[in-house]
Amino acid sequence: MNKSLLSLALVGTLTAVGVAAPAMAQYQQPTYQQPSGGYQQPTYQQPSGGYQQPTYQQPSGYQQPSYQQYPQTTPTQYTQPRQFNVGIAKLSAGTTISVGPNPQQGALYLNTDRTYPYSLLVAEDVLDNNGNVAIPANSEIRGTFRPAQGGLIYVADSISINGRTFTVNATSKLLRDVKDPRYQGGGKIAGDAAIGAAGGAVIGLLTGGINLGTVLGGAATGAVVGNVTAPQVVVVDPNNPVDIRLKAPLSLRY
Fold first, then answer.
1. Cβ pair 119, 108 in contact under 8 A
2. CA separation (Å) from 25 to 29, 32, 46, 81, 241?
3. pLDDT tens digit string along 211-248?
4. Which of 180, 154, 153, 177 is nearest to 234 (CA)?
């Protein structure tokens, strides 16, 4: 039975091969045929006349700008501005503060027999030990001119800085009195000379010797002696500040 089946399978296989063989014998591999005339590599043809590099033409009327040398300058030396000391400033005893009347107010003419409360202005910045501005110029000093032997002294008791007031203890040296310069004008001298001339005439009348010499001598004497009678005053000029010195250390808290 098994042999019969095997025989049948073998016969089937041979039959299938016999049928396929003629078909395979008829198939042929296609061949590639090159185009007639052969393949030719295309050639690049340069434009007739050849390639020419374009030339740059400068616009007509164009002028090359000329270079102007920049003038050399000497660098300005920079000065570090003074800094206003914000916080605490300390000034030692003996520190000098220059003060004077307001320039708009003009000079002061003060008699030596009375007391004058006056506010003066700081003439220049006052620096602390670190070189910072402790008291700016134009700060207001309050104090009093007081009589002293031979003139007046100024005693400062407070100072106002940027709207804040501080107690201060400072005094000036003796401000000596002088003859009131307002009495040295031509009108005053002429008046004194007239008084002197009248006095000379009276003396001549009493002595019975009125003459031109007596009158002129009296006039000259009146001009000299009359000026001597001018009152003594202390002159405080804005252009000649008064120096006051701290009698005690000063601490300023801003």
1. no
2. 11, 21, 56, 114, 138
3. 555 444 544 454 445 456 789 999 999 999 999 999 99
4. 177
User: Rounded mean pLDDT of 118-132?
Assistant: 94
Q: Residue count of the chain, please give it.
A: 254
Instruction: Give the global pTM.
Output: 0.54
The residues, ordered by sequence, that sit 6+ positions from 108 with a Cβ below 8 Å of its Cβ are 101, 116, 118, 234, 235, 236
* Main-chain dihedrals φ then ψ at residue 90, nearest 5 degrees: -125, 130
Encode burial over 206-240: b for 16+ CB neighbours within 10 A, e otherwise. Answer: eeeeeeeebbebbbebbbeebbeebeebbbbebee
- CA neighbor of 248 nearest in space, from 137, 90, 136: 90
Q: Where are the beta strands (DSSP E) in 87-129?
A: 88-91, 96-100, 108-111, 116-122, 126-127
Share of residues in the chain with pLDDT > 90 (%): 43
CA distances from 222 to 171, 175, 207 (A): 40, 29, 19
d(CA 139, CA 158): 11
Query: Each residue of 140-161: pLDDT tens digit?
Result: 999 999 999 999 999 999 999 9
Task: Report helix angle 186-207 to 212-228, nearest 10.
Answer: 130
Higher pLDDT, 109 or 196: 109
What would the mean pLDDT of 181-197 be, rounded to a whole number?
62
